[in-house]
């Protein structure tokens, strides 16, 4: 791999050093670890039938830790168990890079361009793995990191059209978090939609030729898609499924056993939560989507600003108020958001009582410092939705974008708790789909157009200019990712410092308490 591996070496060094610091400062189980660690240790001793009723997630993480412990005769100490997540942290960039590699590079077909794209993917995968809420969990014994790794691996396998492997990995992810079934359905749905596009690709190509439109022109027109056109495409799906069902069977069949197995679990368990059901009852907590969008915007700013603040604002205004339909949609969305905040905001007892969570302080000082604050923030949530929707609709199939927002909504709204770790999977998928596009500037492209009478000379110049423009665009993408990487690294150092140095006492608990992102 040569110099390409340098970002990963730095990432691994940083991650391992942070892990070591946490183990020295905090050797005993902390927060939810007081439930996870003893349960895993029971498994290590061969007790597979005693279950702590306060645990709400399946035993996938414990099994993952126990297997090497049994094989290599390792004692299941807290440090060893946390090491499971350290290993997952070190694997995460490779998994993300694998998923990124399934998206065709938007540069050129030359070997140089492919090498640049590969290098950029390596850097980008490290940057995404450093996402603060994700990176932090490499230091403790929680289920979220394993859940994320398996969902991403399942998605990548599906994009490689290895659907049986994708389904199996998806089934394993359900052993970490039950709500991953929503992401399995998302992966299944986008795989089917992709296959529908493949089946009808020939017809589309012919239609483009007949109408005198090139593929580039068709992609450009996607920028102008209206809600009506998106709804029209959605309405056509059932008929397209019926006409292409034979071609879709290789995609659909592998996921059926996984969905049946999950249905059997729900029936056997009497619900989705394993234990502590009274504190994790399903709700309709719609403001969760607003919290997520604000969180994603605050941490995703380097990607959103890849074309500058002015361009971002121009696009947001155009997407939100560029016409009657856009303005009407924004008005309705704002009204719905206000109603959701008014009628479905949930303040969980844990949110008000546990000052070890950042959410405790965010709620008191940002979301609810005075009665009207929640509604003022609602306008910001709508703005964030417009920005992200505009970004994704310009780079991804509309139904994939709608599927992502739907899956995020279904994942977050049933939870009464506000916790950044619930955002890991939707944000990571969002970030991958919103990857900065290394497209050359319009001016560079226009310079390559031949002029009558000097076509032969211009061909050579054109090729050189295009190659230079695309390499410049790759450099711009790399700079954007470096900014993102540095900002995440700074936040991680800051939160780790706070976690290790800011301590306080609870009268009801022995020992010291720490502030963490969990």
TrEMBL record:
Cross-referenced InterPro entries: Alg10
Keywords, ordered alphabetically: Endoplasmic reticulum, Glycosyltransferase, Membrane, Transferase, Transmembrane, Transmembrane helix
One of the record's GO molecular function terms: dolichyl pyrophosphate Glc2Man9GlcNAc2 alpha-1,2-glucosyltransferase activity
GO process terms (BP): dolichol-linked oligosaccharide biosynthetic process
Record localization: Endoplasmic reticulum membrane
Entry EC no(s): 2.4.1.256
Transmembrane segment boundaries: 6-24, 80-100, 140-158, 248-268, 288-305, 373-393, 480-502
Topological type in the membrane: Multi-pass membrane protein
Pathway as given in its UniProt record: Protein modification; protein glycosylation
Chief localization: endoplasmic reticulum
Similarity comment text for this entry: Belongs to the ALG10 glucosyltransferase family.
Functional summary from the UniProt entry: Dol-P-Glc:Glc(2)Man(9)GlcNAc(2)-PP-Dol alpha-1,2-glucosyltransferase that operates in the biosynthetic pathway of dolichol-linked oligosaccharides, the glycan precursors employed in protein asparagine (N)-glycosylation. The assembly of dolichol-linked oligosaccharides begins on the cytosolic side of the endoplasmic reticulum membrane and finishes in its lumen. The sequential addition of sugars to dolichol pyrophosphate produces dolichol-linked oligosaccharides containing fourteen sugars, including two GlcNAcs, nine mannoses and three glucoses.
Protein name (record): Dol-P-Glc:Glc(2)Man(9)GlcNAc(2)-PP-Dol alpha-1,2-glucosyltransferase
């Amino acid at each position: 791999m040569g110099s390409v591996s340098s970002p990963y070496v730095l990432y691994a060094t940083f991650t391992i050093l942070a892990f070591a610091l946490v183990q020295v400062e905090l050797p005993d189980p902390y927060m939810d670890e007081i439930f996870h660690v003893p349960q895993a240790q029971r498994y290590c001793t061969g007790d597979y039938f005693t279950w702590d009723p306060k645990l709400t997630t399946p035993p996938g993480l414990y099994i993952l830790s126990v297997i090497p412990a049994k094989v290599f005769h390792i004692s299941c100490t807290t440090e060893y168990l946390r090491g499971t997540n350290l290993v997952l942290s070190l694997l995460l960039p490779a998994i993300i890079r694998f998923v990124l590699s399934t998206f065709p590079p938007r540069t050129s077909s030359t070997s140089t361009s492919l090498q640049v794209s590969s290098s950029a993917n390596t850097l980008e995968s490290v940057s995404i793995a450093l996402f603060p809420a994700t990176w932090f969990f490499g230091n403790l014994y929680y289920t979220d990191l394993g859940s994320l790794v398996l969902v991403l691996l399942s998605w990548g396998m599906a994009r490689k059209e290895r659907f049986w492997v994708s389904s199996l990995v998806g089934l394993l992810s359900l052993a970490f978090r039950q709500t991953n079934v929503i992401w399995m359905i998302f992966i299944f749905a986008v795989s089917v939609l992709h296959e529908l596009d493949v089946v009808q690709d020939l017809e589309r190509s012919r239609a483009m030729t007949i109408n005198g439109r090139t593929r580039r022109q068709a992609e450009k027109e996607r920028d102008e898609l209206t809600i009506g056109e998106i709804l029209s495409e959605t309405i056509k799906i059932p008929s397209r499924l019926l006409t292409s069902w034979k071609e879709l069977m290789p995609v659909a069949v592998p996921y059926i056993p996984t969905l049946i197995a999950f249905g059997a679990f729900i029936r056997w368990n009497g619900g989705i939560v394993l234990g502590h059901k009274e504190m994790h009852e399903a709700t309709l907590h719609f403001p969760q989507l607003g919290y997520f969008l604000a969180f994603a915007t605050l941490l995703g700013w380097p990607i959103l600003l890849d074309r500058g603040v002015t361009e971002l604002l121009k696009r947001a205004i155009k997407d939100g108020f560029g016409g009657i339909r856009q303005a009407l949609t924004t008005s309705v969305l704002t009204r719905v958001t206000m109603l959701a905040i008014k009628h479905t905001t949930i303040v969980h007892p844990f949110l008000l009582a546990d000052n070890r969570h950042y959410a405790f302080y965010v709620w008191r000082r940002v979301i609810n410092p005075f009665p009207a604050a929640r509604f003022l923030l609602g306008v910001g949530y709508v703005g964030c939705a417009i920005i992200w929707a505009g970004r994704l609709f310009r780079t991804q199939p509309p139904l994939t974008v709608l599927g992502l927002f739907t899956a995020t909504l279904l994942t977050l709204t049933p939870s009464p708790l506000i916790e950044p770790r619930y955002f890991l999977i939707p944000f990571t998928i969002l970030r991958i789909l919103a990857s900065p596009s290394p497209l050359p500037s319009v001016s560079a492209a226009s310079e390559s157009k031949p002029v009558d009478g000097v076509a032969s000379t211009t061909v050579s110049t054109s090729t050189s200019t295009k190659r230079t423009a695309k390499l410049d665009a790759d450099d711009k993408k790399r700079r954007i990712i470096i900014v993102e990487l540095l900002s995440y690294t700074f936040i991680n150092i800051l939160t780790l410092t706070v976690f290790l140095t800011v301590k306080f006492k609870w009268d009801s608990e022995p020992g010291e308490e720490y502030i963490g992102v969990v």
